[in-house]
């Protein structure tokens, strides 16, 4: 099998898994949180376990690809100990990602899964703004219009959003959910831009970077677990409320960043945009089946606006204007081609 065939398989397999992951995660989180307080899992324990899974999965990938545990240990030592300055620099995004993981469950405790998926697409807007001001990334006119359409679509959904039916028996405050999601959007944008700006010259692989972030996130998440839930954990056990759904949710959430890395490496942004769009549709269908979610016309209109904005934003990136010299040379080349007669020598 050729390298291009392998890349193609990774591309479509990664897109499929990313779509399933982004569509199923909000549904599983919503389902597992819609229980009595005494049966709901501790989010701090869940976040702590996610960091452990990330270390195990990424370590397994490095050992498998290098075929040597000693090489894995040497690579880890070089990245974390020998390059301590880089390790210190990722403390801020590691703290932010730990905060985000906790906000994720707060948002889905107060918002329906489809509404969360759509509102969380605001991270495209916040990331674009951060990159524009801090990294000098330019946007095309169509991208600016796409961002406007995105904001209007999310605003429309927030305006018409209504809580789920009373049969769900969920005590929630939609405003808390929207605030949590918007906070996630801004923190995600800042962490992403910060990492790109500070660690752009790093030679460490994506797997080592994930381990580095997780190793910093582990003590932070443990302190959070100790501060907020330690008394209840001692009384009821750390894995209170854990069942098959919670285990799947934890594993799926922890490998989400790895899937995104695979998609970025092997697929283009257009396919990623379609994956995000299909995930929104999948979450809507799942909410309709599991939670009797019935979106109205204005909700569907807002959803359509968000999906179109995602596709337009990724399909029409900014392109540097053509210089006068290159335009002149191209015109001369075209003129020469027109002067050649068909069949002539």
UniProtKB/TrEMBL annotation:
Keyword RNA-binding in record: no
Keyword Lipid biosynthesis (UniProt): no
Keyword field: Membrane, Sugar transport, Transmembrane, Transmembrane helix, Transport
GO CC terms of this entry: Golgi membrane
Topology term for the membrane: Multi-pass membrane protein
GO molecular function: pyrimidine nucleotide-sugar transmembrane transporter activity
Transmembrane stretches, start-end: 41-66, 113-135, 144-162, 174-195, 207-228, 244-264, 271-291, 297-316
Main localisation: membrane
Compartment(s) of residence: Membrane
InterPro entries: EmrE-like (IPR037185), Nuc_sug_transpt (IPR007271)
Coiled coil: none
Similarity comment: Belongs to the nucleotide-sugar transporter family. SLC35A subfamily.
Protein name in the entry: UDP-galactose transporter
Organism: Caenorhabditis latens
């Amino acid at each position: 099998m050729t390298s291009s065939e392998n890349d193609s398989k990774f591309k479509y397999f990664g897109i499929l898994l990313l779509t399933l992951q982004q569509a199923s995660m909000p549904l599983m989180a919503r389902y597992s949180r819609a229980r009595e307080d005494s049966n709901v899992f501790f989010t701090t324990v869940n976040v702590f376990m996610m960091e452990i899974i990330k270390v195990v999965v990424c370590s397994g990938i490095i050992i498998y690809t290098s075929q040597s545990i000693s090489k894995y240990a040497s690579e880890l030592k070089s990245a974390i100990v020998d390059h301590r300055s880089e390790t210190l620099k990722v403390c801020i995004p590691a703290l932010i990602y730990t905060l985000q993981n906790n906000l994720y469950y707060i948002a889905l405790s107060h918002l329906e899964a489809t509404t969360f998926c759509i509102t969380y697409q605001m991270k495209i807007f916040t990331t674009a703004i951060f990159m524009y001001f801090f990294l000098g990334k330019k946007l095309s006119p169509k991208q600016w219009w796409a961002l406007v359409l995105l904001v209007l679509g999310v605003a429309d959904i927030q305006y018409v959003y209504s809580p789920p039916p009373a049969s769900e028996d969920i005590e929630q405050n939609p405003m808390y959910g929207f605030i949590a999601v918007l906070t996630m959007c801004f923190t995600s944008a800042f962490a992403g831009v910060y990492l790109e700006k500070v660690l752009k010259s790093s030679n460490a692989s994506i797997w080592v970077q994930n381990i580095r972030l997780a190793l910093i996130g582990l003590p932070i998440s443990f302190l959070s677990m100790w501060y907020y839930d330690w008394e209840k954990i001692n009384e009821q056990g750390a894995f209170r409320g854990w069942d098959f759904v919670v285990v799947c949710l934890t594993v799926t959430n922890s490998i989400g960043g790895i899937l995104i890395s695979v998609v970025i490496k092997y697929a283009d942004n257009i396919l990623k945009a379609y994956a995000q769009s299909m995930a929104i549709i999948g979450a809507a269908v799942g909410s309709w089946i599991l939670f009797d979610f019935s979106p109205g016309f204005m909700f569907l209109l807002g959803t359509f606006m968000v999906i179109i904005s995602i596709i337009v934003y990724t399909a029409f990136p900014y392109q540097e204007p053509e210089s006068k010299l290159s335009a002149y040379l191209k015109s001369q080349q075209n003129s020469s081609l027109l002067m050649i007669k068909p069949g002539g020598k």
